[in-house]
């Protein structure tokens, strides 16, 4: 990043932007429900679910979600990923180089990030400032000294950059001066990763054991980035709620997600949904939340600039990130489940 642009960027503050309105809160109507289609069949030819649309195995749930919300084996997400793994207190987990290096070589990840950034820059559906930002990630700046190699960090928290900022602070920078020729440009950062876990569980109701009927009402509050002037549209946070029979659901149901750099579908608003589960004798019935997307292991690739020497640095930081299925307009699918009592 040129010295001029560097000084004109202001750090983005994810928490304060949520309060200030850069993220708008709404009720999610993009909650999906599977189990209401005609019965599918497992590989052995037997019904994968019972007549009223409940599922009895994880494999059948995953197979159904693959059809409705397919995910890619590799993904990229612009900026600092909103869906990076965090603990219950909201702190970033220290995912290590040893966790990812055997699956994904960091030098290859840098090449993949540069290729994805070039593709992003060529797509005219993106704003001109963000396309320029993507070019900087791929090619750097013409007036800066190019790096001799990649700085490979040891874990997600090992992210200090040349200006003393963390990678999250740097990657959330954007030029907000409407008089500047660099207005709207963002710091050049991207996450690239390979699929680790598809459709992870995000909470479940307590359920019912034995014959009877469960009735639920499901809603969710969504904080989703709206403004194209705030830099990369990186994703948002969903907080689902269930009310009804045995409907306690823990905090693990809430999670943050990143958008794929190729995604054209954002989470949409819709009404709350009513769900009924018929539980036969000898079975336990409950409602299970599955995130519509996959967790990827990879690297946050950053092109940093030391303004004191005009020296560029390419940094690869290990990370584990949840990315929304690129074609899905909902963050959670609620699945009607039956298991043995």
Give keywords.
341 residues, 5-stranded antiparallel sheet, alpha+beta, 5-stranded mixed sheet, disordered N terminus, elongated
Radius of gyration: 22 Å
What percent of residues are in strands? 25-35%
The overall pLDDT, averaged over residues, is 81
* Strand elements, count: 17
How would you sum up this structure, described in words?
Residues 125-138 have a biased composition (Basic and acidic residues). Residues 145-173 have a biased composition (Polar residues). The chain has 341 residues and is an alpha+beta fold. It has one domain. It is 18% helix and 34% strand. It has 7 helices and 17 strands. The strands form 4 sheets. Strands 2, 10, 11, 12 and 13 form a 5-stranded antiparallel beta sheet that branches. A hairpin with a 4-residue loop joins β15 and β16. The longest helix is centred in the middle third of the chain and has 17 residues, at 106-122. It is elongated and about 75 Å long. Residues 1-30 and 35-51 have low confidence and may be disordered.
């Amino acid at each position: 990043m040129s010295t001029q642009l560097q000084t004109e960027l202001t750090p983005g503050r994810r928490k304060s932007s949520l309060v200030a309105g850069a993220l708008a809160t709404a009720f999610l109507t993009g909650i999906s429900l599977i189990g209401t289609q005609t019965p599918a069949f497992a590989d052995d030819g037997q019904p994968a679910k019972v007549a009223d649309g409940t599922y009895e195995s994880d494999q059948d749930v995953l197979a159904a979600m693959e059809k409705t919300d397919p995910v890619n084996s590799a993904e990229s997400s612009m900026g600092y990923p909103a869906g990076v793994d965090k603990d219950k207190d909201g702190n970033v987990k220290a995912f290590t180089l040893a966790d990812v290096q055997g699956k994904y070589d960091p030098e290859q990840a840098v090449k993949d990030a540069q290729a994805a950034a070039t593709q992003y820059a060529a797509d005219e559906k993106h704003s001109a400032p963000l396309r320029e930002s993507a070019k900087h990630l791929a090619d750097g700046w013409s007036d800066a000294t190019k790096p001799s190699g990649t700085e490979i960090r040891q874990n997600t928290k090992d992210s200090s950059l040349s200006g003393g900022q963390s990678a999250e602070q740097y990657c959330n920078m954007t030029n907000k001066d409407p008089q500047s020729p660099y207005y709207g440009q963002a710091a050049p950062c991207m996450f690239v990763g390979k699929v680790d876990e598809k459709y992870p569980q995000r909470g479940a109701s307590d359920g019912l054991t034995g014959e009877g009927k469960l009735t639920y009402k499901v809603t969710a509050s969504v904080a989703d980035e709206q403004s194209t002037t705030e830099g990369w549209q990186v994703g948002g946070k969903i907080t689902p709620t269930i009310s009804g029979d045995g409907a306690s659901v823990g905090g693990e149901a809430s999670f943050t997600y990143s958008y794929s750099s190729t995604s054209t579908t954002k989470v949409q608003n819709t009404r709350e949904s009513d769900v009924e589960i018929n539980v036969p004798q000898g079975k336990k019935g409950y409602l299970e939340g599955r995130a519509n997307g996959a967790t990827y292991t990879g690297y946050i690739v950053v092109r940093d600039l030391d303004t004191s020497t005009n020296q560029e640095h390419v940094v690869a930081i290990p990370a584990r990130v949840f990315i929304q299925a690129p074609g899905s307009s909902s963050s959670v699918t609620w699945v009607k489940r039956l298991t043995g009592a």
